[in-house]
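Suppose a colleague, Dr. K., hands you the sequence of a protein chain of 600 amino acids and asks what its three-dimensional shape might be. Before reaching for any lab equipment, you can write down a predicted structure in token form. Begin with the sequence itself:
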Amino acid sequence: METKPTTVGRILRSLAVLLVVLAAFAIGLWTAAPADETQSGVGETEIWTCSMHPQIQLPEPGSCPICGMDLIPLGEGSEAAPNRVTISERAKALARIRTTPVHRAQEGGELRLLGRLDYDETTVRTISPWTDGRIDRLFVRSEGAEVKRGQAVAALYSREAYAAQKELIGARRQVERLKDALPVSRRAAAEALDAAETRLQLLGVSPKSINRASRHVSVVAPYGGTVIEQVAREGAHVESGQPIFRIADLDRLWVQLDAYEGDLPRIKLGLPVELEVASLPDQTFEGRVDFIDPVVSTTTRTARVRVVVDNRERNLRAGMFADAVIRTEDGTEQAPPLVIPDSAPLFTGKRSLVYVEVPKSSEPTYEAREVSLGARVGHHYPVLSGLREGERVVMQGAFVLDSDLQIRGGRSMMFMPDDRERQPTAAVEVDEAFRRGMAPVVEAYLALRDGLARDDLEATRKHYAALVDAVEGFAPSAPAAAKKAWSPMAKQLRAAALRGGTASDLAQARQVFEETSAVVLDVMRRFGNPLEDALHVATCPMAFSGRAASWVQRSDTVDNPYQGKKMLRCGSIDAEVAPAARWEEAPEGQSSQPHQHGGH
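The predicted structure, expressed as tokens, is then:
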């Protein structure tokens, strides 16, 4: 009888446990739906952005309200530092990211320049006759021939020399006849003989030919060398002093180098130079800087640097191109500067950005850092500030990282303001006459822009020349404030247009166009639109390897001069400037018109 309650109790306890399990299961089912809803809510709040406009961040997919492109997920890491980007090891391998440590340069440095071999002008000589006459025969008939000192190079028919020789023979006979005459007569005959001999010497007659009458005078080389130019031919009539040959001593040559003005402070007289020529790839020639031109060319912005090189073995020839390496020196006892490869920095105007590897990170992480750099030395840039020795900078793949940071909405190169944007310029009041005078300048600029948009290099050069004429033709005398403001702008615009007129290709012409546009934009900002039509300010976000650049155009549809036919519609219209109105820059990252992106 006692076992029944026990059995019943066990049954009751089993039922209770089962009820608890069922209750827990029911509670789980009840709580599962809210959890799913919560997870779904997290997915719905994922941030979507535009690859071209990272400032656009929306809670759901769709199209960019600026350019119409499909939005993409912002991805993980959006809460990280605005100047850092983290990628996976696989992404690092695919992007081929390579880093290198910031290190100090070796003592001195290298400056590589291109030059052309030329004759040593101090050894160039001219062979010419001492009397008028006709060249009856040339004993040297080709350029490149070697001439020795005292060698006869031509036979010249000269009536004057022939008459002087006959006069000399007559004077000698007169001296012979008067040898027994009075002293006065003998002295007069001797003076006449001396005068005849002196006259023949002045006509270039050699002592060997002075005793006989001849219709020909030998033209003798007074010095030796190599014929570099034959000026006269057989049968030609030449006058006294007129060149027949030009010769030079080729035992020593000059190498004429073109150095940009930024490189000139590092070049000193006497610095050693190594030379290589394409036709002699296994040989290196040495020379020294002998002369630095004190004047910089206004068209190429270069100065001539002359190097003297020994050529006694005659391996080098005038006219050859040479690659020169000048061994520069710091001239101080300070430690050599820090340097980074020239492929590491990204540029936005005057600012420089590098990506620095963040050490001890669980995944590859890189930090965008603004740095100050000096003038490029060979394949390196000296670091003035912003980096420490031993830090690793990205030397390959920096643009990929910058694009990733841009997509994530970070502080990438695309959104780093240029120095010029931080220098506000005040508006200047101008009258109608001033605007009419400036109109041809802007018209010439617009024609130049059209040539670049059509990829027409020849037309672009002509438009640059027309722009020079337009700038030189505008010399306002009033208002005084406008005249003062225009003067430095005119000099800058003229200098840029002169360089653009000699551009070797479209890439160089477009580099100069950026400088030209900067001045024209300043004109629009300070003086206003001088035309009777509305003008539009446009920007291409990827004009130069991802760096943005602006320009002025008539049309309200993007017509990109930096990309030409390749991406003619890439860019955005930032502002419309009415006639006589001034252009006011919009806040950074904003645009008054939709962005356009396309090939044609």
